[in-house]
Amino acid sequence: MQKELLDTFERINHAWFARAQSEIDLAAEFLGKVAETRSIPGVATACQECISKQLEMFSEDSRRMLADGEKLLRAGTRHLGNGATAVN
Predict the structure, then answer these.
(1) What is the C-alpha separation between 44 and 34, in angstroms, rounded?
(2) How many CB atoms lie within 10 A of CB 46?
(3) Average pLDDT over residues 62-73
(4) What CA–CA distance (Å, rounded) separates 70 from 85?
(5) Which of 3, 35, 56, 74 is the most buried (most CB within 10 A)?
(6) Distance (Å, rounded) from C-alpha 1 to C-alpha 19?
(7) Is the pLDDT of residue 87 over 70?
(8) HEC profile for the chain?
(9) Which pLDDT band, with edges at 50, 70 and 90, does 29 fall under?
(10) 3-state DSSP call for residue 81?
(11) How confident is the model over 46-60, as a mean pLDDT?
(12) What span, in angstroms and rounded, lies between the C-alpha atoms of 39 and 27?
């Protein structure tokens, strides 16, 4: 049971690490666009694009959090009651 929970946490942690890297990449991309842009409308467009991508990422984060919570609940409840399998 502990190994299954640990494996679940490891998979979740790996996914969230990749998500954090995506946020860093997005910030670097945004800063690059702002540095290249020489006009206020260009900066506004870069901001809109960045915010749009962040909203997509937040939406994906919400789905992932729900899925991860479900994985943890299933892994934990499978072993309730002296190792008896829970009804799904």
Answers:
(1) 9
(2) 19
(3) 88
(4) 16
(5) 74
(6) 27
(7) no
(8) CHHHHHHHHHHHHHHHHHHHHHHHHHHHHHHHHHHHCCCHHHHHHHHHHHHHHHHHHHHHHHHHHHHHHHHHHHHHHCCHHHHCCCCC
(9) very high
(10) helix
(11) 95
(12) 19
Contacts of 22 (CB under 8 A, 6+ apart): 57
DSSP3 helix / strand / coil % (the chain, rounded to 5): 90, 0, 10
Buried b (16+ CB within 10 A) or exposed e, 58-77: eeeeeeeeeebeeeeeebee
> How far is it, in rounded angstroms, from Cα 2 to Cα 79?
10
Residue 51's nearest CA partner among 26, 19, 76, 88 is 26
Tokens 């729900």 belong to residue: 66
Tokens representing 56 are 């997509």
What's the residue count for the chain?
Answer: 88
pTM (two decimals): 0.70
